[in-house]
């Protein structure tokens, strides 16, 4: 061996040369074997040492020589076979070249590549497979088809791996090969087919081996052959176990089947999945496929088709049995989670079915451990959770059999609770589970099931009763051996669908006593209050009872005991059911049972147990309602005393049931029942001991027979004087009579209202409570009677009646649930009028009632009542004015604390959300309301009123709205006083802005409001300064408004104006006296006159001199302005003119002005003369010249001047008649002349003047004196003048007269 070691290099070179270049295949193959032997002898290191691996790689890459490539592959094959896993590292390195060789153009090379690949795969270890497989799988994704083909061929060769490696790689290989079958290149497809056949060729299971062509066709064309393949697999009987290659071909087909839409295909696929786990040689071979199959089985488990779900559930169970729980750690948690799903009943049902199979597979211990959680979830707060876990109990009996039977006692309460669940799905699940329990355990667990079902029949919940009857039916059907599905027609149940043999079978199994108890219970619930329970009970009865009359006779003792026990039950429904059953019994057996039933019931009223006495009353009602009228007549002697006794029972519930019994008796006995029972109850009401129970007895019969009983009761109860108990009785009976009282309102209500003012406090309280009850029990129709009655009450002459009616109106509107919006307008109008009532308590009651009526009207409807409220306030004001005569009018109701609170929402809502017209109405109405409100009351709400008004005034609304708001604000300023201090800046700014409005009415009212507001201000100079600045700009209309405002400010706060501002104002106003616009001149003159009150002597003198000079100027407007100013000064401070040194000059100017060619100048002069005359008469000055000048004016050509002079003389006569009488000789003829004037206004003024100058109304002597001076008047005409009223009705009376 040593010598060979020395020749190793040459030996290896010769072998490689021969293997790559020899012409003959045999020599090349022999050289390959020799090379493998040499390498094995010289150890693996020789591959690198002698460059063997590099030479092989060069040979594979030699594209010029096919022999080189083939020889290299032969060497590769032999080395793999001889060296085994030692050669594996070189295999990984050579793999890309081997892949290329599969697509070689020379057939011999390709065949050599296949042989080399087969040898390589057979020797691969598990680690080698992991290294090789990713490269091959990646090759399948290559874009070159040859690479894909080579990778497929190598993957096919992997079928020759060792068994352990084969099971490891096939789950990854076969799905990829299946995908290759749909490749676009035919050669790649063909390679895929060949590769799959190679996989099939190594299958050891003979049954699967025979089916390989079919399986391959299913893999190749799944759409057409999957279903057929599954059918063949299910038909095949497996004797041998399934190996890993078999699984590799089966699983893709089964996986495809699970995903099919067809129901049969999914069922078959799921069935095969279940079977596979028991047929595999080694269960661990299935593990690689679990991740693929289990998600699809889960999807099939929640399939809409129940059969499919069942197969999938069994498949899960088989997987657990075959492979063990540890393989599926997440399966049970997933099933439990799906049981709680909110998605659908189908998913929960599938999960329940699957879990039942899995639990059966996991065994008894695991089930015992998990059952408490399942039962606890049956009462979970979520309906879906309850539904899922109750559905589980439907499948557990089938899957677990006898194991589950041991847990019935623990599970049954959960089922019964589920039967009463509020959710229909949960109830259905519980009932379905109950049916399954009965089906599986009726014979083996009867003593356990029957008591639970019997208890359910007497449950308070109708759903439990219905389900229990159905379950009892199933149980009896099972015992009797009948299906219970017979269709029963017809109303008579004398003959049922059962046979005698079935009846005997029930007796044999249950025993006669238990059978009688069960049938008695079924018969009773045939009369259940729930229709579905009745229908279920009737079905069970007719199915298991052959002859009803005979059966009833057999069970009569037990039935009566059951009925009486139920009539005494604490459950009202159970008592009612028993009563109805008793009624049906009477209808069926009639006179045969009445003689025994009625005495038993009468005797039952003596039972100390109140529940049993109540049950007797219910039973009596049913017996009387079911028996014929002629049948009852013979028992009246017992029935009437029994019911009468029950109506006076000490227990409320007994009396209620007795009332129902009385109603039934009344149908048969008519007036006899009333005549024999009602008088007794009325007499009992007079006894202190029995009055309360007797009253309640009356309430009970009244509740059922209102129309018949009321006429007998009311006359006695409303008889005056009303006692406290009778008032209480009226209230108590009203609660029961309800709308039936409507026709008796006129009888009851006046009596109660008067009693509400009774001297006895108890009578007051009970009458008030009774009246409140009556107004609340009236329904919509009764309102038409109640409202007129209440309105009559508030208009009654008695204060107590008005007060009580007003209170009830308020109570009705606050507490009634009726729709009273239509009644609100009349009530509001009436109650506002009542605010001027003479009784203070009535006023307060009316105000409170009005508040409640307004509170009941929806906010958006309030503005519609503005006009109504205005009219009502006006009516109340007129009413109060007539009563007080001349005193400033304030409504008593609007002098209360918070009196305006209910009114404000009406007007504020109108101001905020109403139309322009509504806003105007609201503002005017608010002003009218405030006008009759006391100052103290107004101050409480002045802030919430004023704010919105200012905001609206600042917006762009029509002038009518602004004018109305300004008017209201003026009233608020006059009454609110200092309470408006916070709004002073805003109001002042707003008013000044409104002075420039385009509308005269807005400007005028803003000027008036600003004047009154100035009285509240402490800083007047800035305001006056602003007004004076406004006079220097703007049109004449604005100037007039500003002048009016200035006049008002000076009048209310002139003392606070500084001399500098006063001087500036006087200068500016003097200029405006020469304005062309009459209104501006007139307003400027008035402003100067008002300002003159606060001028010192120097300022006054300067002003007079200026006016005297202006009075002689050529421009008549200037002259007119000067005289208007003299007139204004003579009104506001005549003393400054009369005591002025220039007074003679003033009189001369006035005298000259009477001759002016412009009549406005003459009229202004006349007015000034009149005012000066009034002052002189009042303070004893010289008057002759002034009187002469007025007489001269009375002869003026202008009717206005003449009328003005007469008005001035009349005013003077009113001030000091005796002083004026000294001039009667010259006044008389002048007045006489004007009495014959051609102008009617002048004649009227003359008549009024004559009446006052000659004192005509004081007697005949004065008339005679007048006749002497009125020479042109006859005595008759003078006497006619004497009949005129003293007070002038002249609508255009002068300022002087108003001052007088």
From TrEMBL:
HEAT repeats: 173-211, 293-331, 331-369, 411-446, 639-676, 748-786
Annotated InterPro entries: ARM-like, ARM-type_fold, HEAT_GCN1, HEAT_type_2, TOG
Gene3D superfamilies per UniProt: Leucine-rich Repeat Variant
GO molecular function, one term: protein kinase regulator activity
GO CC annotations, alphabetized: cytosol
Entry's Gene Ontology BP terms: cellular response to amino acid starvation; regulation of translation
Entry keyword set: Repeat
Keyword Repeat: yes
Database matches in SUPFAM superfamilies: ARM repeat
Signal peptide bounds: none
Start and end residues of each TOG domain: 1-232, 323-576, 667-888, 889-1126
The family this protein is said to belong to: Belongs to the GCN1 family.
Protein name, per record: TOG domain-containing protein
Organism: Aegilops tauschii subsp. strangulata
């Amino acid at each position: 061996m040593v010598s060979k070691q020395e020749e190793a290099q040459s030996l290896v070179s010769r072998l490689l040369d021969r293997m790559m270049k020899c012409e003959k295949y045999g020599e090349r193959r022999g050289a390959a074997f020799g090379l493998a032997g040499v390498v094995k002898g010289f150890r693996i290191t020789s591959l690198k040492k002698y460059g063997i691996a590099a030479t092989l790689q060069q040979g594979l890459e030699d594209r010029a020589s096919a022999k080189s490539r083939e020889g290299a592959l032969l060497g590769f094959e032999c080395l793999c076979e001889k060296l085994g896993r030692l050669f594996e590292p070189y295999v990984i390195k050579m793999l890309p070249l081997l892949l290329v060789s599969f697509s070689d153009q020379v057939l011999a090379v390709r065949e050599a590549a296949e042989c080399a690949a087969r040898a390589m795969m057979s020797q691969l270890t598990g680690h080698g497979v992991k290294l090789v497989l990713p490269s091959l799988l990646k090759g399948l994704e290559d874009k070159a088809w040859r690479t894909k083909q080579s990778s497929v061929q190598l993957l096919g060769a992997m079928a020759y791996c060792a068994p352990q490696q084969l099971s490891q790689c096939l789950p990854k290989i076969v799905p990829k090969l299946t995908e290759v079958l749909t490749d676009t290149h035919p050669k790649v497809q063909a390679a895929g087919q060949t590769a799959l056949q190679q996989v099939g060729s190594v299958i050891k299971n003979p049954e699967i081996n025979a089916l390989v062509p079919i399986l391959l066709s299913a893999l190749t064309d799944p759409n057409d052959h999957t279903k057929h393949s599954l059918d063949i697999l299910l038909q095949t009987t497996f004797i041998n176990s399934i190996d890993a290659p078999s699984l590799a071909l089966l699983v893709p087909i089964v996986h495809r089947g699970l995903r099919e839409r067809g129901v049969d295909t999914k069922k078959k696929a799921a069935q095969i999945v279940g079977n596979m786990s028991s047929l595999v040689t080694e269960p661990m071979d299935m593990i690689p496929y679990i991740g693929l199959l289990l998600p699809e089985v889960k999807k099939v488990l929640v399939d809409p088709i129940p059969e499919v779900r069942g197969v999938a559930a069994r498949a899960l169970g088989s997987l657990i049995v075959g492979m063990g729980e540890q393989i599926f750690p997440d399966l049970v948690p997933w099933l439990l989670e799906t049981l709680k799903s909110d998605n659908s009943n189908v998913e929960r049902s599938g999960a329940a079915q699957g879990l039942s199979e899995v639990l059966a597979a996991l065994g008894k211990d695991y089930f015992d451990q998990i059952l408490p959680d399942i039962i606890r979830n049956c009462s979970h707060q979520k309906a879906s959770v309850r539904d899922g876990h109750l559905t589980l109990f439907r499948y557990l009996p089938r899957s677990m059999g006898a194991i589950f039977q041991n847990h019935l006692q623990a599970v049954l309460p959960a089922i019964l609770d589920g039967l009463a669940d509020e959710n229909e799905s949960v109830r259905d699940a519980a009932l379905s589970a109950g049916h399954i329990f009965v089906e599986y355990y009726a014979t083996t667990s009867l003593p356990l099931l029957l008591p639970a079902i019997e208890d359910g029949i007497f449950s308070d919940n109708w759903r439990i009763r219905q389900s229990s009857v159905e379950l009892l039916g199933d149980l009896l059907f099972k015992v009797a051996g009948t299906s219970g599905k017979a269709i029963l027609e017809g109303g008579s149940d004398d003959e049922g669908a059962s046979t005698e043999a079935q009846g005997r079978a029930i007796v044999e199994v249950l025993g006669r006593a238990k059978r009688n108890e069960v049938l008695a219970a079924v018969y009773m619930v045939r009369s259940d209050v729930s229709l579905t329970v009745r229908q279920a009970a009737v079905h069970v009865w007719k199915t298991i009872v052959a002859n009803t009359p005979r059966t009833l006779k057999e069970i009569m003792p037990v039935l009566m005991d059951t009925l009486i026990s139920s009539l005494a039950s604490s459950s009202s429904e159970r008592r009612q059911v028993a009563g109805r059953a008793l009624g049906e019994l009477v209808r069926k057996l009639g006179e045969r049972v009445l003689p025994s039933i009625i005495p038993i019931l009468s005797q039952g009223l003596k039972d100390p147990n109140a529940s049993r006495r109540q049950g007797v009353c219910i039973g009596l009602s049913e017996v009387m309602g079911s028996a014929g009228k002629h049948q009852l007549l013979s028992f009246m002697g017992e029935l009437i005393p029994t019911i009468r006794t029950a109506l006076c029972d000490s227990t409320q519930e007994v009396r209620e049931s007795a009332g129902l019994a009385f109603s039934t008796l009344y149908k048969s006995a008519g007036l006899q029942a009333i005549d024999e029972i009602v008088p007794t109850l009325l007499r009992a009401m007079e006894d202190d001991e029995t009055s309360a129970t007797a009253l309640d007895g009356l309430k009970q019969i009244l509740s059922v027979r209102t129309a018949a009983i009321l006429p007998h009761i009311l006359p006695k109860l409303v008889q005056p004087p009303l006692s406290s108990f009778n008032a209480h009785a009226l209230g108590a009976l009203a609660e029961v009579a309800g709308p039936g009282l409507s026709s008796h309102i006129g009888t009851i209500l006046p009596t109660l209202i008067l009693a509400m003012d009774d001297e006895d406090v108890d009578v007051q309280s009970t009458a008030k409570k009774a009246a409140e009850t009556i107004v609340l029990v009236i329904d919509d129709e009764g309102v038409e009677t109640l409202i007129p009655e209440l309105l009559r009450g508030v208009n009654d002459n008695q204060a107590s009646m008005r007060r009580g009616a007003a209170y009830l109106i308020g109570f009705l509107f606050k507490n009634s649930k009726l729709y009273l919006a239509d009644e609100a307008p009349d009530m509001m109008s009436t109650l506002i009028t009542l605010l001027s009532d003479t009784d203070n308590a009535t006023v307060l009651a009316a105000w409170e009632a009005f508040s409640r009526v307004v509170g009941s009207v929806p906010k958006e409807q309030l503005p519609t009542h503005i006009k109504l409220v205005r009219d009502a306030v006006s009516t109340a004001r007129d009413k109060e004015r007539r009563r007080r005569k001349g005193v400033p009018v304030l409504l008593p109701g609007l002098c209360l604390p918070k009196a305006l609170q209910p009114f404000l929402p009406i007007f504020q809502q109108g101001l905020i959300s109403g139309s322009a017209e509504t806003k105007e109405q609201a503002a005017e109405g608010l002003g009218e309301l405030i006008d009759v409100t006391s100052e103290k009351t107004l101050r409480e709400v002045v802030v919430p009123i004023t704010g919105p008004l200012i905001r609206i005034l600042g917006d762009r609304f029509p002038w009518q709205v602004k004018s109305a708001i300004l008017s209201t604000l003026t009233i608020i300023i006059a009454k609110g006083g200092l309470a408006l201090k916070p709004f002073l800046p805003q109001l002042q700014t707003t008013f000044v802005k409104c002075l420039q409005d385009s509308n005269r009415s807005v400007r005028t009212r803003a000027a008036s409001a600003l004047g009154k507001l100035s009285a509240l201000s402490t800083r007047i100079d800035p305001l006056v300064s602003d007004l004076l600045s406004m006079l220097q700009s703007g049109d004449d209309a604005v100037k007039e408004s500003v002048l009016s405002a200035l006049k008002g400010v000076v009048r209310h706060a002139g003392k606070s104006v500084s001399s500098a501002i006063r001087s500036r104002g006087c200068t500016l106003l003097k200029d405006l006296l020469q304005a062309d616009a009459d209104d501006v001149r007139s307003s400027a003159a008035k402003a100067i006159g008002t300002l003159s009150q606060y001028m010192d002597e120097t300022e006054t003198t300067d002003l007079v001199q200026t006016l005297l000079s202006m009075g002689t100027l050529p421009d008549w407007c200037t002259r007119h302005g000067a005289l208007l100013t003299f007139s204004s000064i003579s009104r506001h401070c005549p003393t400054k003119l009369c005591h002025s040194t220039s007074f003679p000059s003033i009189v001369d100017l006035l005298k000259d002005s009477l001759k002016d060619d412009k009549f406005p100048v003459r009229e202004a002069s006349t007015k000034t003369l009149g005012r000066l005359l009034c002052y002189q008469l009042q303070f004893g000055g010289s008057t002759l010249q002034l009187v002469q000048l007025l007489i001269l004016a009375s002869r003026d050509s202008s009717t206005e001047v003449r009328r003005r002079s007469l008005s001035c003389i009349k005013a003077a006569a009113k001030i000091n008649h005796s002083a004026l009488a000294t001039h009667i000789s010259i006044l008389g003829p002048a007045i006489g002349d004007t009495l014959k004037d051609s102008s009617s206004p002048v004649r009227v003024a003359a008549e009024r003047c004559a009446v006052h100058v000659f004192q005509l109304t004081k007697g005949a002597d004065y008339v005679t004196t007048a006749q002497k001076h009125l020479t042109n008047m006859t005595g008759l005409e003078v006497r006619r003048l004497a009949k005129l009223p003293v007070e002038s009705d002249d609508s255009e009376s002068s300022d002087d007269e108003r001052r007088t």
